[in-house]
Task: structure prediction
Amino acid sequence: MTSVVRLVVRTSAELLVTLGLVVVAFAVYVVFWSDVQNAAAQSKLRDTFQAQVEQAARTQVSAAKGGAAAPAPIASDLPSGSTLGVIRIPRLGDDWSWVMVEGVSDDDIAKGPGHFPGTAMPGQVGNFAVAGHRATHGEPFAHLDEVRKGDEVSIETVNGTYTYVVDGSKIVDPTAVGVIDAVPGKPGAKPKKALITLVTCNPRWGSTERMIISGHLTSTQIAGA
Amino acid sequence: MYAVLWRLVPGPWPAKLLVFLLLALGVLALLFLVVFPWLEPLLPFDEITLG
Result:
């Protein structure tokens, strides 16, 4: 009888220790491994974007000579997960830059900040909306709470660089889809201004709310000009 | 549990140890490549979009 009790106690102790190790392994996966995978994805995306910029520079020389006044917006039907451009926010550091991708599925935003499909493209009239992780997966938007009114957000695409100025930030419910409307809060309204909206989770390791940074376009520079 | 497994693996102890390490590595790979990627979206800090 005692040997049976001993076997049961020993086996459950071994199982519990094993479970504890699995939990530790999961913590390592979430906190460390997702960053490693994101860094690899970003490095690949950066190479792709660089190649696209060089390719575009070759073809755009003729366009610039033709006297184009403003860069064409990039195609709005990019496949999910493809490179869209680079986002820079000087307030978060001179070397703070992330390659954005099209789409906001788990796979897309694991690679970098993702553009909400259907919202405006950089520089376009409407609302250019981007979601990024605030914790794990490289945590691009970890310190988005430090961004202040008047700060610049620059978006570089193969066609040009668009500079937005931050109007403010707010905390909203996760269901507040209106913030990414072309005219925020007015679904279906015809937009007149080019806006930007950055979305991430709040609090940092939680998901009960979302933090929104909004801004408007102030200047545009044609690539190569 | 592990004692029984240890007895089941044949060979001298260094060989047993090697088999055990390989088994542990296999389990870890299964966790990192299959189980954790499935588990992660179920956790709250991964939700950043709206809707």
